[in-house]
Design goal:
The structure holds two protein chains of two kinds.
Chain A: H1 3-23, H2 25-30, H3 36-41, H4 44-51, H5 55-67, H6 70-80, E1 83-86, H7 94-97, E2 105-110, E3 117-121, H8 128-143, E4 147-150, H9 156-166, E5 171-174, H10 188-196, E6 198-202, H11 214-225, E7 228-231, H12 239-249, E8 253-256, H13 267-274, E9 278-279, H14 283-290, H15 311-319, H16 327-334, H17 338-351, E10 354-356, E11 362-364
Parallel strand pairs in A: 3-4, 3-7, 4-5, 5-6, 7-8, 8-9
Antiparallel strand pairs in A: 1-2, 2-6, 10-11
Helix pairs in contact in A: 1-5, 8-9, 11-12, 15-16, 15-17
Chain B: E1 3-12, E2 15-26, E3 31-35, H1 40-43, H2 45-55, E4 64-70, H3 82-92, E5 104-106, E6 109-110, E7 116-117, H4 122-131, E8 136-140, H5 144-148, E9 154-158, H6 161-169, H7 200-212, E10 216-219, H8 226-231, H9 242-254, E11 268-269, H10 277-281, E12 282-283, E13 288-289, H11 291-294, E14 299-302, H12 310-314, H13 317-322, E15 324-328, E16 333-337, E17 341-346, H14 365-373, H15 377-381, E18 385-388, H16 394-399, H17 406-424, H18 433-439, H19 444-457, H20 461-477, H21 485-493
Parallel strand pairs in B: 3-4, 5-8, 8-9, 10-17, 10-18, 11-14, 14-17
Antiparallel strand pairs in B: 1-2, 2-4, 6-7, 12-13, 15-16
Classes of the chains: A alpha/beta, B alpha/beta.
Chain lengths: 368, 502
């Protein structure tokens, strides 16, 4: 292809990307095998039989076709230090190109690493154990030289990114909003870290709002960029399961971290295991499967047996389970009086045997 | 000479200032005017006094009557000048020997039939009279027992204007009113901790709070029993000292909430979250003490803390820091005492179910963040104890062993508080700076544990002080002189959860 021709192609893909950000990919899919160029040039009236008649849609089509200005788009991106790669570019990630519904263009803040990528996804409201597991996996993968891809949401996503950042590894955050929009805002610091350790990626142009339908849609990009999808903790009907489904459709390996049975936050991820997903019960085994190194990696410390604990702390530890439990429940199970239990719990927490979660419930930590 | 003087008192904040009522009756066109910055209620005294005098069987002088309330620059408000004005007029017109009005302070509102109605701030009036060196205080019968508590001034309660005239003018002898017998704290009817099944953790936290007068935040889903626990807080508070009783009664009496006797219980106030800033902190164009002052020496309970207006809550910062509220007006600056234990309850998120095992939370992270951001950091910084109150299942409630009665807890609290007062003269919650370092010195085990905790848990400077203060109280409850590792470890449980303190 000639340069000017490619430039033209690129413009048409960017146009399609803007259109898709407004109307969703399903509508663009209904346009069938029309090329981006054709969509750019065909007036709405000629497309009516494919997309159905809709005044709002008509206005949108016409407006975009008339006003889309490549020079302006490029200038805006340049000003913010954002780059774009389209399906017409060779730099477009090969893995992503082969999924059923690849985004016409990706906006990048940073650069997508060359390394193999693994997605770590899960619930925004995961348990303390889930968060901890996500962090550990992120760290372990990054140390193995695997790039951690996730959605920069709260909970598991944030922990996974943070783990990779902590290990000074590579990580990519795929956004469900405009490339320059920080959502949720409390993750601002993490956004910066991820940008420094890899890239922020979005199919949405500058300033696009975090609309609820955009998040399930971006999950196909997460699944598309990676070789393996890991679900850490996910309730039924959750975004993480959508990522897993996209992964299966695109032929990716799907693993899940087993959770306690019957716990709502783990029903989705456990369901994946029941359906035959990879069981992530041991981090070294998992690493060996997704990023074989040949030769044993460093052994992760095994959960130590709390020997030599004072009696009251040992008794208190017996009352704390793998599921978060309020102080009163711990008191009941351990049979201790409050004035003895409270000091014991604090000491156990300091020693790292238990974790106190956001609502003051205690849970045992597998690895102190 | 027809100028007569009666001494009276005017409430200013919770203190009474002397006011002289000068009455001049001179020949001229009949009229009646009051000068000396009177407000509407004082102006209307003209009608009440005129009718009350005639209905008591005296003659209102058909002359020119001028009443001056001195000092003239102080705003006078309320109907309490009715009685001194009436007595002054009667003295000036000869119905009463002016000598009778000397060395007596007179306050009281008149009704049209000549009866004497109750007033606000009787206790403060008695104190003011004593300070002025007046030996007698004449006031409405209803308020006499309250005023008599102060001592050092003879208090006489009056039912009617006629009775007052006869008493003052004709030298009628009678015994001054005795202070009302003080019924000792009787909590048999109050809500008892024993009625609350389970929630031993929260109860323990409230016990520590009561002992050290620490401010508490209880966080938990709806229906977990936060309000129920809070309502039982007064039952475990240490008894009021005499001095504190007088302070509390002065505030309540000044706001017109007194019941004519000394208040012996620590007040427990729970304003609704729609309360206005001046309703909470005090104020208004005729300044009145707010809820925070009415809770002086007691507990202010704010249920559903995030529902309170942000500016309303900010008004609590001064009283929490200084123990009083200053209300500044162009005319004057008032000061109401407000040393309180602040007890708050809140849900962890807007729907209330974050962290609840039985019901899913449907709030987005942003909603939770915004909800919790409604409470400002500086306010949270003044809270010593954070306790999570989970919802208990029916099974859990049934399995609970019977709970301790409030009286047992109060006994421990009383001892711990007495220790604190004799050691440092204030409850532990007031410790800060050098005093805190001195009273909460750690040794050996405790020191090691604490440095480890500071490191592992990332305690801030303020969080550090909070843990020390609470640990001091835990040690006091255990009757120990030094803070042990166990006391410190228990105090660590009461620190702020991550959900709140990001």
């Amino acid at each position: 292809m000639e340069d000017s021709e490619r430039h033209d192609e690129r413009a048409k893909h960017l146009f399609l990307s803007h259109l898709q950000a407004r109307v969703g990919s399903s509508l663009v899919a209904r346009l069938g095998n029309l090329s981006p160029g054709a969509i750019f040039e065909t007036p709405y009236a000629d497309l009516v039989d494919k997309v159905g008649k809709d005044q709002k849609l008509e206005r949108l089509f016409d407006g975009l076709q008339r006003r889309f200005d490549l020079a302006l788009v490029e200038a805006q991106m340049k000003e913010r230090g954002i780059s774009a790669i389209t399906l017409a570019d060779e730099a477009y990630p090969g893995m992503l190109r082969n999924v059923p519904d690849p985004p016409p263009a990706l906006y990048l803040d940073g650069a997508i690493p060359e390394e193999p990528c693994v997605a770590l996804v899960g619930s925004r409201k995961a348990s303390a154990t889930g968060i901890e597991m996500a962090g550990k996996l992120g760290r372990a993968l990054a140390e193995r030289g695997v790039c951690v891809v996730s959605g920069l949401a709260l909970g598991v996503d944030a922990a996974a990114h943070q783990g990779a950042v902590d290990a000074a590894g590579r990580t990519v955050g795929v956004l469900g909003c405009g490339i320059d929009v920080v959502y949720p805002r409390s993750n601002r610091a993490l956004f910066d870290s991820v940008r420094r350790h890899g890239a922020l990626v979005s199919e949405y142009f500058l300033g696009e709002a975090p609309l609820s339908w955009r998040f399930p849609a971006r999950n196909r990009i997460i699944a598309g960029l990676v070789t393996t999808v890991v679900v850490v903790e996910a309730p039924e009907h959750s975004g993480a399961l959508i990522t897993a489904r996209h992964g299966l459709e695109a032929g990716r390996d799907v693993w899940a971290v087993p959770g306690p049975p019957g716990v709502r936050e783990c029903r989705g991820s456990n369901g994946l295991l029941a359906d035959g997903g990879g069981v992530l019960w041991d981090i070294p085994e998992f690493l060996e499967a997704v990023a074989p190194r040949g030769g044993a990696g460093p052994e992760l410390p095994a959960p130590s047996v709390p020997a030599g604990l004072p009696d009251d702390e040992a008794a208190a530890l017996c009352g704390v389970g793998l599921e978060p439990r309020g102080v009163d429940a711990v008191a009941r199970r351990s049979g201790m009086v409050m004035s003895e239990l409270l000091p014991a719990l604090a000491l156990l927490e300091l020693k790292g045997f238990v974790h106190r979660d956001a609502v003051g419930a205690y849970v045992r930590r597998a690895v102190p | 000479m027809s100028v007569c003087r009666a001494r009276s008192l005017s409430l200013f904040g919770i203190d009474a200032l002397p006011v002289e009522v000068e009455v001049d009756v001179s020949p001229g066109l009949p009229g009646f005017s009051i000068v000396g910055l009177p407000d509407a209620a004082v102006q209307e005294a003209r009608e009440r006094v005129r009718v009350a005098i005639s209905n008591s069987g005296y003659k209102f002088p058909i002359k020119r009557v001028i009443v001056n309330l001195a000092p003239a620059n102080l705003r006078k408000e309320g109907p309490a000048f009715d009685l001194p004005i009436a007595l002054g007029i009667l003295a000036a017109s000869g119905a009463l020997a002016p000598a009778g009005l000397e060395r007596a302070a007179v306050v009281g509102e008149l009704s049209l039939d000549g009866g004497v109605r109750g007033i606000k701030g009787a206790l403060s009036m008695a104190e003011g009279a004593r300070k002025e060196g007046l030996s007698r205080l004449v006031l409405p019968c209803r308020d006499a027992p309250e005023a008599a508590v102060i001592g050092g001034v003879e208090v006489f309660g009056m039912r009617t204007l006629k009775e007052a005239v006869e008493f003052l003018g004709n030298g009628l002898r009678r015994a001054p009113t005795e202070p009302a017998p003080q019924n000792e704290t009787d909590d048999s009817a109050a809500d008892d901790f024993a009625d609350v099944a389970g929630q031993r953790y929260a109860k323990r936290a409230l016990e520590v709070a009561a002992a050290g007068a620490h401010n508490v935040v209880m966080s938990g889903p709806p229906g977990s029993g936060k309000t129920m626990l809070a309502r039982r807080m007064p039952g475990i508070l240490p008894p009021l000292t005499m001095e504190e009783r007088i302070e509390v009664t002065k505030v309540h009496s000044a706001s017109g909430e007194g019941n004519g006797s000394l208040i012996t219980h620590r007040p427990f106030r729970s304003p609704h979250h729609t309360v206005s800033t001046s309703g909470l902190a005090g104020g208004g164009s005729n300044p009145r003490p707010g809820e925070v002052s009415l809770a002086h020496n007691g507990v202010l309970f704010l249920d559903e803390l995030p529902e309170f207006g942000r500016t309303t809550l900010e008004a609590l910062r001064q009283p929490l820091e200084d123990g009083h509220v200053t209300i500044s007006r162009v005319a004057a600056t008032l000061c109401y005492p407000a040393r309180i234990t602040l007890l708050c309850s809140m849900n962890p998120c807007p729907c209330g179910h974050a962290g609840d095992k039985r019901k899913a939370c449907r709030c987005t992270a942003g909603q939770i963040e915004r909800y919790q951001a409604r409470i400002s950091g500086p306010l949270l910084d003044r809270m010593d104890i954070f306790v999570d109150v989970p919802r208990l299942s029916r099974q859990e409630l049934r399995d609970e062993p019977s709970a301790e009665a409030s009286a047992v807890v109060r006994d421990r609290v009383r001892k711990a508080r007495a220790t604190q007062i004799s050691r440092q003269g204030s409850p532990n919650s007031m410790l800060s700076g050098r005093k805190l370092r001195k009273m909460c010195a750690l040794a050996g085990d405790a020191e090691t544990l604490f440095s480890r905790a500071v490191e592992t848990l990332g305690l801030s400077g303020r969080g550090h002080d909070r843990v020390l203060r609470v640990a001091r109280t835990v040690a006091d409850l255990a009757g120990e002189r030094g803070i042990g590792a166990d006391h410190l470890a228990e105090a660590l449980n009461y620190r702020r959860s991550h959900l709140l303190g990001r």
